[in-house]
Write a structure and sequence with these properties.
The structure holds 2 protein chains of 2 kinds. Chain A is an alpha/beta fold. Chain A is built from 6 helices and 6 strands. In chain B, a hairpin with a 2-residue loop joins β2 and β3. The chains are: A alpha/beta, B alpha+beta.
């Protein structure tokens, strides 16, 4: 599985406005809806599910990164949105630092393996300092998509 | 020195959703309490158990066997405590993940 297999190209938000964890999650779920990956009528329910998951423990994993996620019956395949927050978002992260990179995942409940492979893929790349640095420096959706492609091809 | 003792054992992922985010968080939190080195291996992939990011790279589904390697003081006790997390399925309800 590669990043470009599940990151929705139309759901890349390179300039998330300053705000809260909830506004960030809402904006990212909206981007997936606008890209046609989820239905408008499912949007609020998905946001609620992701926020409920955050109540169990923040998905802010340190290094300025958060991976909010949920399993939801509205999708039949793993999908993800990416957002960059230049001003940082308070995600109640484990290290107490703001979040600048957000990967939001939605996966079907009956395919836990896909969910694990999505998390594996994202985690593997986030361990690469070059990937995190270049991602934070990206200005446009095209920049980010190109970076994901390079990461998939082990060109970083 | 006794500090150099290495304890190895195999643990099996029994919970239905596998080693997703929260189980990895629980493992990392538990491992961080120990001064020694704790590593999980799956094939050629080695993950520092104190690192959530590294644990997530194991992508361990239900039924996966992992090699647990503990180095440092009282490694058997450390391995016992981590094994308990696996054997109780991380005390996780099936949803949400």
């Amino acid at each position: 599985m590669k990043l470009c297999d599940f990151v929705v190209q139309g759901a890349i938000v390179p300039d998330l406005p300053a705000g809260t964890k909830e506004t960030a999650i809402r904006a990212m779920v909206r981007s997936l809806q606008k890209a046609g990956s989820i239905k408008a009528e499912d949007e609020e329910n998905i946001v609620a599910a992701i926020l409920k998951r955050e109540e169990l423990g923040s998905t802010g994993i340190g290094r300025g990164v958060a991976v909010p996620h949920t399993k939801h019956g509205s999708t039949d395949k793993l999908i993800a949105a990416i957002a960059l927050a230049k001003d940082g978002v308070d995600f109640a992260s484990l290290d107490g630092e703001p979040v600048y990179i957000i990967f939001l995942l939605i996966s079907p409940p009956d395919r836990p393996g896909d969910h694990l492979r999505g998390l594996e893929n994202i985690s593997r790349h986030l361990r690469n300092d070059h990937f995190c640095k270049f991602l934070r420096q990206s200005k446009t959706s095209d920049d980010i998509w190109e970076l994901l492609t390079e990461a998939d091809n082990n060109e970083l | 020195m006794s500090d150099a003792v290495i304890h190895r054992r195999t643990v099996t992922v029994i919970n239905e959703q596998g080693l997703h985010f929260r189980p990895c968080q629980l493992i990392a939190q538990a491992a961080q309490q120990f001064s020694g080195t704790v590593v999980f291996c799956r094939g050629s992939t080695r993950a520092d158990a104190k690192s959530l990011l590294e644990l997530l790279t194991l992508a361990a589904e239900q039924g996966t066997d992992l090699e647990l390697e503990v180095t440092g003081p009282d490694p058997t006790n450390v391995a016992d405590k981590l094994s308990e997390l696996f054997s109780c399925g991380f005390q996780m309800p099936p949803q949400p993940a």
